[in-house]
Amino acid sequence: MTYASRRGFALALLAATQFVLVLDASIVGVAMPSIGADLKFAPDDLSWVANAYTLTFGGLLLLGGRAADLVGRRRMFVLGMALFTAASLAGSLAAGPATLVAARAAQGVGAALVSPAALSLIMTIFPAGPERNKAMGVFGAVAGAGGAAGSILGGMLTQWLGWQATLYVNVPIGLAAIALAPRLLPEASDRTARGFDLPGALTATGGLALLVYTLVEADGAGWTSPNTLGLGALALALIGLFFLIEARTAHPLVPLQIFRRPVLRGSNLAAVLTLMAMAPLFFYLTFYMQQVLGFGPVRAGLAQLPLALAIAVTAGAAGSLIARLGLRTAMAAGLAVTAAGLAWFSRMSPDGGFLTDVLGPTLVIGVGAGLAFVTTTVGATSAASPEQAGLASGLFNTAQQVGGSIGLAAVVAISTARTAGALADGERVMTAALTDGYRAGMLAAAGIALAAALLAAAFVPRRNAAPVSDTATDQTLAA
Protein backbone atom coordinates (compact mmCIF):
# COMPACT_ATOMS: atom_id res chain seq x y z
CA MET A 1 0.00 0.00 0.00
CA THR A 2 1.47 3.37 -1.01
CA TYR A 3 1.77 6.27 1.42
CA ALA A 4 -0.89 8.27 -0.45
CA SER A 5 -3.38 5.40 -0.58
CA ARG A 6 -2.79 4.64 3.10
CA ARG A 7 -3.65 8.23 3.99
CA GLY A 8 -6.73 8.04 1.76
CA PHE A 9 -7.98 4.90 3.51
CA ALA A 10 -7.22 6.46 6.90
CA LEU A 11 -9.30 9.51 5.99
CA ALA A 12 -12.14 7.29 4.80
CA LEU A 13 -12.09 5.40 8.11
CA LEU A 14 -12.06 8.56 10.24
CA ALA A 15 -14.77 10.29 8.19
CA ALA A 16 -17.03 7.23 8.25
CA THR A 17 -16.59 6.98 12.02
CA GLN A 18 -17.53 10.62 12.53
CA PHE A 19 -20.55 10.12 10.28
CA VAL A 20 -21.79 7.35 12.58
CA LEU A 21 -21.25 9.45 15.72
CA VAL A 22 -23.16 12.43 14.33
CA LEU A 23 -25.86 10.20 12.87
CA ASP A 24 -26.35 8.46 16.22
CA ALA A 25 -27.44 11.71 17.83
CA SER A 26 -30.47 11.87 15.52
CA ILE A 27 -31.15 8.36 14.20
CA VAL A 28 -33.29 7.34 17.18
CA GLY A 29 -35.54 10.40 16.79
CA VAL A 30 -37.84 8.77 14.25
CA ALA A 31 -37.84 5.57 16.31
CA MET A 32 -39.02 7.26 19.53
CA PRO A 33 -42.71 6.33 19.25
CA SER A 34 -41.82 2.68 18.61
CA ILE A 35 -39.30 2.62 21.47
CA GLY A 36 -41.81 4.17 23.88
CA ALA A 37 -44.53 1.69 23.01
CA ASP A 38 -42.28 -1.39 23.02
CA LEU A 39 -40.38 -0.69 26.24
CA LYS A 40 -43.30 1.04 28.00
CA PHE A 41 -41.53 4.32 28.66
CA ALA A 42 -43.33 6.93 30.74
CA PRO A 43 -44.06 9.91 28.45
CA ASP A 44 -41.83 12.25 30.46
CA ASP A 45 -38.92 9.80 30.37
CA LEU A 46 -38.80 9.02 26.65
CA SER A 47 -36.72 12.11 25.82
CA TRP A 48 -33.85 10.59 27.81
CA VAL A 49 -33.24 8.10 24.99
CA ALA A 50 -31.80 11.10 23.11
CA ASN A 51 -30.71 13.23 26.07
CA ALA A 52 -28.55 10.53 27.71
CA TYR A 53 -26.35 10.44 24.60
CA THR A 54 -26.24 14.23 24.27
CA LEU A 55 -25.40 14.71 27.94
CA THR A 56 -22.37 12.41 28.14
CA PHE A 57 -21.16 13.25 24.64
CA GLY A 58 -21.22 17.01 25.27
CA GLY A 59 -19.93 16.82 28.82
CA LEU A 60 -16.89 14.64 28.14
CA LEU A 61 -15.62 15.98 24.79
CA LEU A 62 -13.07 18.32 26.32
CA LEU A 63 -11.70 15.59 28.55
CA GLY A 64 -11.68 13.16 25.62
CA GLY A 65 -9.69 15.57 23.47
CA ARG A 66 -7.00 16.11 26.08
CA ALA A 67 -6.90 12.39 26.88
CA ALA A 68 -6.13 11.74 23.21
CA ASP A 69 -3.11 14.08 23.47
CA LEU A 70 -1.85 12.48 26.67
CA VAL A 71 -2.63 8.77 26.18
CA GLY A 72 -2.39 8.51 22.40
CA ARG A 73 -4.86 9.41 19.67
CA ARG A 74 -5.11 6.01 18.04
CA ARG A 75 -5.34 4.33 21.43
CA MET A 76 -8.24 6.57 22.48
CA PHE A 77 -9.91 6.09 19.10
CA VAL A 78 -9.88 2.30 19.51
CA LEU A 79 -10.91 2.44 23.18
CA GLY A 80 -13.79 4.81 22.42
CA MET A 81 -14.98 2.72 19.46
CA ALA A 82 -14.93 -0.43 21.59
CA LEU A 83 -17.11 1.24 24.24
CA PHE A 84 -19.42 2.77 21.63
CA THR A 85 -19.86 -0.58 19.86
CA ALA A 86 -20.50 -2.55 23.05
CA ALA A 87 -23.01 0.06 24.24
CA SER A 88 -24.80 -0.04 20.87
CA LEU A 89 -25.16 -3.81 21.13
CA ALA A 90 -26.42 -3.53 24.72
CA GLY A 91 -28.96 -0.89 23.67
CA SER A 92 -30.28 -3.00 20.80
CA LEU A 93 -30.88 -5.85 23.27
CA ALA A 94 -32.44 -3.65 25.98
CA ALA A 95 -35.58 -5.06 27.56
CA GLY A 96 -36.49 -2.02 29.65
CA PRO A 97 -36.16 1.78 29.80
CA ALA A 98 -33.31 1.89 32.33
CA THR A 99 -31.10 -0.45 30.30
CA LEU A 100 -31.62 1.52 27.10
CA VAL A 101 -30.93 4.90 28.72
CA ALA A 102 -27.77 3.54 30.37
CA ALA A 103 -26.61 2.14 27.02
CA ARG A 104 -27.23 5.47 25.31
CA ALA A 105 -25.20 7.24 28.03
CA ALA A 106 -22.34 4.77 27.49
CA GLN A 107 -22.55 5.41 23.74
CA GLY A 108 -22.06 9.11 24.47
CA VAL A 109 -18.97 8.40 26.57
CA GLY A 110 -17.47 6.34 23.74
CA ALA A 111 -18.33 9.02 21.19
CA ALA A 112 -16.67 11.69 23.37
CA LEU A 113 -13.43 9.68 23.22
CA VAL A 114 -13.61 8.91 19.50
CA SER A 115 -14.68 12.24 17.98
CA PRO A 116 -11.78 14.49 19.09
CA ALA A 117 -9.31 11.64 18.53
CA ALA A 118 -10.54 11.25 14.93
CA LEU A 119 -10.28 14.97 14.16
CA SER A 120 -6.84 15.26 15.75
CA LEU A 121 -5.63 12.23 13.77
CA ILE A 122 -6.54 14.06 10.56
CA MET A 123 -4.42 16.98 11.80
CA THR A 124 -1.60 14.52 12.48
CA ILE A 125 -1.80 12.73 9.12
CA PHE A 126 -2.25 15.76 6.84
CA PRO A 127 0.07 18.79 6.99
CA ALA A 128 -1.44 22.26 7.45
CA GLY A 129 -2.46 24.01 4.24
CA PRO A 130 -4.38 22.97 1.12
CA GLU A 131 -3.86 19.26 1.75
CA ARG A 132 -5.37 19.39 5.23
CA ASN A 133 -8.16 21.69 4.01
CA LYS A 134 -9.15 19.10 1.41
CA ALA A 135 -9.12 16.37 4.06
CA MET A 136 -11.24 18.56 6.35
CA GLY A 137 -13.61 19.08 3.42
CA VAL A 138 -14.12 15.33 3.08
CA PHE A 139 -14.42 14.93 6.86
CA GLY A 140 -16.90 17.81 7.06
CA ALA A 141 -18.91 16.54 4.10
CA VAL A 142 -19.45 13.14 5.66
CA ALA A 143 -19.94 14.40 9.20
CA GLY A 144 -22.23 17.25 8.15
CA ALA A 145 -24.43 14.90 6.17
CA GLY A 146 -24.73 12.62 9.20
CA GLY A 147 -27.22 14.91 10.91
CA ALA A 148 -29.56 14.89 7.93
CA ALA A 149 -29.02 11.20 7.20
CA GLY A 150 -30.07 10.21 10.72
CA SER A 151 -33.73 10.81 9.96
CA ILE A 152 -33.48 8.99 6.62
CA LEU A 153 -31.86 5.86 8.02
CA GLY A 154 -33.85 6.01 11.24
CA GLY A 155 -37.14 5.96 9.35
CA MET A 156 -36.11 3.11 7.08
CA LEU A 157 -34.61 0.93 9.80
CA THR A 158 -37.50 1.49 12.20
CA GLN A 159 -40.19 0.75 9.64
CA TRP A 160 -38.47 -2.24 8.02
CA LEU A 161 -36.44 -3.87 10.82
CA GLY A 162 -37.66 -2.38 14.11
CA TRP A 163 -36.21 0.29 16.39
CA GLN A 164 -33.46 -2.06 17.59
CA ALA A 165 -31.81 -1.76 14.18
CA THR A 166 -31.08 1.95 14.76
CA LEU A 167 -28.59 0.81 17.42
CA TYR A 168 -27.47 -2.55 16.07
CA VAL A 169 -26.34 -0.95 12.80
CA ASN A 170 -23.40 0.55 14.72
CA VAL A 171 -22.00 -2.87 15.72
CA PRO A 172 -20.52 -4.09 12.41
CA ILE A 173 -19.27 -0.59 11.63
CA GLY A 174 -17.60 -0.32 15.02
CA LEU A 175 -15.97 -3.75 14.75
CA ALA A 176 -14.60 -2.88 11.31
CA ALA A 177 -13.18 0.43 12.62
CA ILE A 178 -11.47 -1.33 15.55
CA ALA A 179 -9.92 -3.91 13.22
CA LEU A 180 -8.68 -1.35 10.68
CA ALA A 181 -7.37 1.31 13.07
CA PRO A 182 -4.01 -0.38 13.90
CA ARG A 183 -3.34 -0.89 10.19
CA LEU A 184 -4.27 2.57 8.94
CA LEU A 185 -3.85 5.09 11.77
CA PRO A 186 -0.57 6.33 13.26
CA GLU A 187 -0.08 6.72 16.98
CA ALA A 188 0.55 10.25 18.18
CA SER A 189 0.56 12.01 21.55
CA ASP A 190 1.88 15.07 23.36
CA ARG A 191 5.27 13.87 24.58
CA THR A 192 5.89 17.12 26.45
CA ALA A 193 2.88 16.62 28.75
CA ARG A 194 3.58 16.27 32.45
CA GLY A 195 0.93 15.34 35.00
CA PHE A 196 -2.85 15.32 34.75
CA ASP A 197 -5.15 18.13 35.81
CA LEU A 198 -7.75 16.18 37.83
CA PRO A 199 -9.49 19.25 39.39
CA GLY A 200 -9.76 20.83 35.94
CA ALA A 201 -11.11 17.60 34.46
CA LEU A 202 -13.76 17.27 37.18
CA THR A 203 -14.95 20.88 37.01
CA ALA A 204 -14.97 20.97 33.19
CA THR A 205 -16.85 17.69 32.87
CA GLY A 206 -19.28 18.53 35.66
CA GLY A 207 -19.92 22.06 34.40
CA LEU A 208 -20.43 21.10 30.77
CA ALA A 209 -22.59 18.06 31.57
CA LEU A 210 -24.74 20.10 33.96
CA LEU A 211 -25.07 22.91 31.41
CA VAL A 212 -26.24 20.48 28.70
CA TYR A 213 -28.66 18.85 31.17
CA THR A 214 -30.08 22.23 32.16
CA LEU A 215 -30.61 23.21 28.52
CA VAL A 216 -32.32 19.98 27.46
CA GLU A 217 -34.64 20.15 30.47
CA ALA A 218 -35.32 23.89 30.35
CA ASP A 219 -38.28 23.75 27.97
CA GLY A 220 -40.16 21.26 30.13
CA ALA A 221 -39.24 22.78 33.49
CA GLY A 222 -39.57 26.41 32.36
CA TRP A 223 -36.77 28.81 31.55
CA THR A 224 -37.40 30.91 34.67
CA SER A 225 -38.14 28.00 37.02
CA PRO A 226 -36.02 27.60 40.18
CA ASN A 227 -34.74 24.28 38.80
CA THR A 228 -33.46 25.83 35.55
CA LEU A 229 -32.03 28.96 37.16
CA GLY A 230 -30.40 27.05 40.02
CA LEU A 231 -28.81 24.35 37.89
CA GLY A 232 -27.78 26.90 35.27
CA ALA A 233 -26.06 29.03 37.91
CA LEU A 234 -24.29 25.98 39.32
CA ALA A 235 -23.12 24.94 35.82
CA LEU A 236 -21.72 28.41 35.13
CA ALA A 237 -20.06 28.47 38.55
CA LEU A 238 -18.31 25.15 37.81
CA ILE A 239 -17.16 26.41 34.42
CA GLY A 240 -15.89 29.62 36.02
CA LEU A 241 -14.04 27.57 38.64
CA PHE A 242 -12.54 25.50 35.84
CA PHE A 243 -11.03 28.59 34.20
CA LEU A 244 -9.71 29.76 37.57
CA ILE A 245 -8.03 26.37 38.10
CA GLU A 246 -6.56 26.41 34.60
CA ALA A 247 -5.00 29.82 35.22
CA ARG A 248 -3.25 28.60 38.37
CA THR A 249 -2.28 24.96 37.78
CA ALA A 250 1.13 23.93 36.46
CA HIS A 251 -0.22 21.33 34.02
CA PRO A 252 -3.68 22.55 32.93
CA LEU A 253 -6.21 20.46 31.05
CA VAL A 254 -6.71 23.47 28.78
CA PRO A 255 -3.76 25.89 28.64
CA LEU A 256 -5.53 29.26 28.48
CA GLN A 257 -3.00 30.70 26.06
CA ILE A 258 -4.63 28.64 23.33
CA PHE A 259 -7.48 31.19 23.35
CA ARG A 260 -5.04 33.95 22.36
CA ARG A 261 -5.05 32.58 18.82
CA PRO A 262 -7.61 34.78 17.04
CA VAL A 263 -8.57 32.31 14.34
CA LEU A 264 -9.19 29.54 16.88
CA ARG A 265 -11.18 31.85 19.13
CA GLY A 266 -13.30 33.33 16.33
CA SER A 267 -13.93 29.99 14.65
CA ASN A 268 -15.09 28.34 17.87
CA LEU A 269 -17.52 31.21 18.52
CA ALA A 270 -18.81 30.87 14.97
CA ALA A 271 -19.17 27.10 15.49
CA VAL A 272 -21.34 27.67 18.57
CA LEU A 273 -23.70 29.92 16.60
CA THR A 274 -23.65 27.66 13.52
CA LEU A 275 -24.93 24.68 15.50
CA MET A 276 -27.38 26.89 17.39
CA ALA A 277 -28.95 27.62 14.00
CA MET A 278 -28.63 24.19 12.40
CA ALA A 279 -29.65 21.83 15.22
CA PRO A 280 -33.27 23.12 15.26
CA LEU A 281 -33.50 22.68 11.48
CA PHE A 282 -33.04 18.90 11.60
CA PHE A 283 -35.59 18.75 14.42
CA TYR A 284 -38.26 20.85 12.71
CA LEU A 285 -37.85 19.43 9.23
CA THR A 286 -39.02 16.04 10.49
CA PHE A 287 -41.88 17.49 12.54
CA TYR A 288 -43.13 19.78 9.75
CA MET A 289 -43.19 16.99 7.20
CA GLN A 290 -44.83 14.45 9.53
CA GLN A 291 -47.19 16.59 11.58
CA VAL A 292 -48.21 19.17 8.96
CA LEU A 293 -47.59 17.61 5.54
CA GLY A 294 -48.63 14.12 6.70
CA PHE A 295 -45.48 12.25 5.58
CA GLY A 296 -44.67 8.84 7.03
CA PRO A 297 -41.29 8.16 8.69
CA VAL A 298 -39.58 6.79 5.56
CA ARG A 299 -40.94 9.49 3.26
CA ALA A 300 -40.00 12.22 5.73
CA GLY A 301 -36.51 10.79 5.98
CA LEU A 302 -36.03 10.51 2.22
CA ALA A 303 -37.24 14.09 1.80
CA GLN A 304 -34.11 15.20 3.67
CA LEU A 305 -31.82 13.51 1.15
CA PRO A 306 -31.36 16.69 -0.95
CA LEU A 307 -30.17 18.53 2.17
CA ALA A 308 -27.66 15.79 2.98
CA LEU A 309 -26.37 15.74 -0.60
CA ALA A 310 -26.06 19.55 -0.75
CA ILE A 311 -24.04 19.54 2.48
CA ALA A 312 -21.78 16.75 1.25
CA VAL A 313 -21.13 18.24 -2.19
CA THR A 314 -20.42 21.74 -0.89
CA ALA A 315 -18.25 20.52 1.97
CA GLY A 316 -16.24 18.47 -0.50
CA ALA A 317 -15.51 21.61 -2.52
CA ALA A 318 -14.85 23.79 0.54
CA GLY A 319 -11.08 23.33 0.45
CA SER A 320 -10.89 24.94 -2.99
CA LEU A 321 -13.19 27.76 -1.91
CA ILE A 322 -11.04 28.47 1.15
CA ALA A 323 -7.94 28.65 -1.06
CA ARG A 324 -9.69 31.01 -3.48
CA LEU A 325 -11.62 33.26 -1.08
CA GLY A 326 -9.69 33.00 2.17
CA LEU A 327 -10.97 31.43 5.38
CA ARG A 328 -12.79 34.48 6.74
CA THR A 329 -14.67 35.28 3.52
CA ALA A 330 -15.59 31.65 2.90
CA MET A 331 -16.86 31.20 6.46
CA ALA A 332 -18.93 34.40 6.44
CA ALA A 333 -20.34 33.57 2.99
CA GLY A 334 -21.37 30.06 4.05
CA LEU A 335 -23.12 31.37 7.14
CA ALA A 336 -24.88 34.14 5.21
CA VAL A 337 -26.20 31.63 2.68
CA THR A 338 -27.35 29.41 5.55
CA ALA A 339 -29.21 32.35 7.07
CA ALA A 340 -30.91 33.06 3.74
CA GLY A 341 -32.04 29.45 3.41
CA LEU A 342 -33.40 29.34 6.96
CA ALA A 343 -35.28 32.60 6.37
CA TRP A 344 -36.77 31.10 3.21
CA PHE A 345 -37.83 27.96 5.09
CA SER A 346 -39.52 30.16 7.70
CA ARG A 347 -42.08 30.99 4.96
CA MET A 348 -43.46 27.42 5.11
CA SER A 349 -47.21 27.01 4.75
CA PRO A 350 -49.69 24.72 6.53
CA ASP A 351 -51.08 23.89 3.07
CA GLY A 352 -47.65 23.52 1.47
CA GLY A 353 -45.76 20.64 -0.03
CA PHE A 354 -42.27 19.25 -0.48
CA LEU A 355 -41.57 20.95 -3.81
CA THR A 356 -42.98 24.33 -2.80
CA ASP A 357 -41.89 24.62 0.83
CA VAL A 358 -39.01 22.21 1.54
CA LEU A 359 -36.82 21.43 -1.46
CA GLY A 360 -35.60 24.93 -2.37
CA PRO A 361 -34.83 26.15 1.16
CA THR A 362 -33.06 22.94 2.18
CA LEU A 363 -30.84 23.01 -0.92
CA VAL A 364 -29.79 26.58 -0.10
CA ILE A 365 -29.23 25.69 3.55
CA GLY A 366 -27.19 22.64 2.56
CA VAL A 367 -24.89 24.71 0.36
CA GLY A 368 -24.31 27.28 3.11
CA ALA A 369 -24.01 24.77 5.95
CA GLY A 370 -21.58 22.55 4.05
CA LEU A 371 -19.23 25.50 3.65
CA ALA A 372 -19.79 26.69 7.23
CA PHE A 373 -19.08 23.28 8.77
CA VAL A 374 -15.74 22.92 7.00
CA THR A 375 -14.52 26.51 7.45
CA THR A 376 -15.24 26.54 11.17
CA THR A 377 -13.50 23.16 11.52
CA VAL A 378 -10.43 24.38 9.64
CA GLY A 379 -10.29 27.64 11.58
CA ALA A 380 -10.73 26.00 14.98
CA THR A 381 -7.96 23.46 14.40
CA SER A 382 -5.46 25.03 12.01
CA ALA A 383 -3.77 27.26 14.59
CA ALA A 384 -3.19 24.44 17.07
CA SER A 385 0.29 23.05 17.59
CA PRO A 386 0.79 19.34 16.81
CA GLU A 387 0.96 18.42 20.49
CA GLN A 388 -2.39 20.15 21.11
CA ALA A 389 -4.32 18.62 18.22
CA GLY A 390 -6.59 16.63 20.53
CA LEU A 391 -7.23 19.64 22.75
CA ALA A 392 -8.19 21.83 19.77
CA SER A 393 -10.46 19.07 18.46
CA GLY A 394 -12.10 18.66 21.85
CA LEU A 395 -12.69 22.41 22.16
CA PHE A 396 -14.26 22.56 18.71
CA ASN A 397 -16.49 19.53 19.27
CA THR A 398 -17.55 20.95 22.63
CA ALA A 399 -18.43 24.27 21.00
CA GLN A 400 -20.59 22.45 18.46
CA GLN A 401 -22.32 20.23 21.02
CA VAL A 402 -23.07 23.02 23.47
CA GLY A 403 -24.17 25.30 20.63
CA GLY A 404 -26.56 22.66 19.33
CA SER A 405 -28.05 22.13 22.80
CA ILE A 406 -28.50 25.86 23.39
CA GLY A 407 -29.99 26.45 19.95
CA LEU A 408 -32.44 23.57 20.11
CA ALA A 409 -33.63 24.50 23.60
CA ALA A 410 -34.03 28.20 22.75
CA VAL A 411 -35.73 27.70 19.38
CA VAL A 412 -38.09 25.05 20.76
CA ALA A 413 -39.11 27.52 23.48
CA ILE A 414 -39.79 30.24 20.88
CA SER A 415 -41.69 27.83 18.64
CA THR A 416 -43.76 26.36 21.48
CA ALA A 417 -44.73 29.81 22.75
CA ARG A 418 -45.83 30.89 19.27
CA THR A 419 -47.89 27.73 18.75
CA ALA A 420 -49.54 28.13 22.14
CA GLY A 421 -50.38 31.74 21.33
CA ALA A 422 -51.89 30.78 17.97
CA LEU A 423 -54.09 28.14 19.60
CA ALA A 424 -55.12 30.49 22.39
CA ASP A 425 -56.68 32.99 19.99
CA GLY A 426 -59.18 30.30 18.95
CA GLU A 427 -58.85 31.07 15.25
CA ARG A 428 -56.12 28.59 14.22
CA VAL A 429 -56.45 24.85 13.68
CA MET A 430 -53.69 22.64 15.00
CA THR A 431 -51.69 22.29 11.76
CA ALA A 432 -51.77 26.05 11.20
CA ALA A 433 -50.76 26.72 14.82
CA LEU A 434 -47.90 24.23 14.57
CA THR A 435 -46.73 25.87 11.35
CA ASP A 436 -46.82 29.28 13.01
CA GLY A 437 -44.52 27.91 15.70
CA TYR A 438 -42.16 26.29 13.22
CA ARG A 439 -41.97 29.52 11.21
CA ALA A 440 -41.07 31.52 14.30
CA GLY A 441 -38.41 28.98 15.22
CA MET A 442 -36.80 28.96 11.78
CA LEU A 443 -36.82 32.76 11.63
CA ALA A 444 -34.97 32.81 14.96
CA ALA A 445 -32.49 30.27 13.59
CA ALA A 446 -31.94 32.48 10.54
CA GLY A 447 -31.15 35.40 12.83
CA ILE A 448 -28.60 33.28 14.70
CA ALA A 449 -26.92 32.22 11.43
CA LEU A 450 -26.77 35.85 10.29
CA ALA A 451 -25.17 36.82 13.61
CA ALA A 452 -22.60 34.04 13.06
CA ALA A 453 -21.79 35.44 9.61
CA LEU A 454 -21.25 38.92 11.03
CA LEU A 455 -19.11 37.52 13.85
CA ALA A 456 -16.96 35.59 11.38
CA ALA A 457 -16.47 38.70 9.24
CA ALA A 458 -15.51 40.78 12.28
CA PHE A 459 -13.40 38.41 14.40
CA VAL A 460 -11.83 35.74 12.20
CA PRO A 461 -8.47 37.05 10.90
CA ARG A 462 -8.00 37.57 7.19
CA ARG A 463 -4.95 35.31 7.29
CA ASN A 464 -4.24 32.52 9.72
CA ALA A 465 -0.97 32.33 11.58
CA ALA A 466 1.05 29.15 11.40
CA PRO A 467 0.55 26.62 14.19
CA VAL A 468 2.76 27.27 17.17
CA SER A 469 3.92 25.19 20.11
CA ASP A 470 3.34 25.76 23.80
CA THR A 471 6.83 27.18 24.15
CA ALA A 472 6.11 30.07 21.79
CA THR A 473 6.06 33.52 23.26
CA ASP A 474 2.87 35.43 23.98
CA GLN A 475 3.71 37.75 21.11
CA THR A 476 3.73 34.86 18.64
CA LEU A 477 0.55 33.40 20.08
CA ALA A 478 -1.27 36.68 19.60
CA ALA A 479 -0.03 37.20 16.04
Mean pLDDT: 85
Question: What gyration radius follows from the Cα positions, in whole Å?
Answer: 21 Å
Please tell me what the overall shape is: globular
> Mind telling me the CATH superfamily name of the largest domain?
MFS general substrate transporter like domains
Number of domains: 2
CATH topology of the largest domain: Growth Hormone, Chain: A
**N→C terminal distance:** 41 Å
- DSSP helical segment count: 18
The class by helix and strand makeup works out as mainly alpha
How much beta, percentage-wise? under 5%
Number of strands: 0
Strand-and-helix sequence, N→C?
Answer: HHHHHHHHHHHHHHHHHH
CATH class of the largest domain: Mainly Alpha
- CATH architecture tag of the largest domain: Up-down Bundle
Unreliable spans = 465-479
Kindly state the percentage of residues in helix: over 70%
**Describe the biggest sheet?**
none
Note the topology.
Blueprint: H1 3-26, H2 32-39, H3 48-71, H4 73-92, H5 97-125, H6 130-161, H7 165-168, H8 170-184, H9 198-221, H10 226-248, H11 262-292, H12 297-302, H13 305-325, H14 327-345, H15 354-382, H16 389-424, H17 430-459, H18 474-478
Helix pairs in contact: 1-5, 1-6, 1-8, 3-4, 3-5, 3-9, 3-16, 4-5, 4-8, 5-16, 6-13, 6-15, 9-10, 9-16, 11-15, 11-16, 11-17, 13-14, 13-15, 14-15, 14-17, 16-17
